[in-house]
Amino acid sequence: ERIDQLLASYAPGTILVTAASPGFGHMSFSDLLLLRAGENVETRATALRNLTLVRALTRTFFDNALKGAPAAPAALPGQGYAELTVRTSGG
Question: What SS3 state is found at 83?
Fold first, then answer.
């Protein structure tokens, strides 16, 4: 509810992306969790998937914001990133 209020307070077109992936958090933006996973196959797979999500989000952001490319964050879940929920503020 608080997030809905916060998103509604931002300018129209503001994008909120939520990742519903196990273990996804601040450190998912680095390869540290992948390195810490060592030989644990399950932990390594989770860390690698989360790093893949971060890369897709980052690439889409830069393509859209800096290159002016028609990269649409809302298309990400349909491109194989089902863990992502993309919402846009209406103003």
Answer: coil
Q: Is the sign of the CA dihedral 64, 68, 69, 74 positive or negative?
A: positive
How far apart are alpha carbons 80 and 69 in whole angstroms? 20
User: How far apart are alpha carbons 16 and 67 in whole angstroms?
Assistant: 20
CB count within 10 Å of CB 44 equals 16
Q: What is the pTM of this model?
A: 0.80
pLDDT in tens, 16-63: 899 999 989 888 888 899 889 989 999 999 999 999 999 999 998 888
The tokens for 25 are 């958090």
Q: How far apart are CA 22 and CA 8, in angstroms?
A: 27
Give residue 15's identity as a one-letter amino acid code.
I
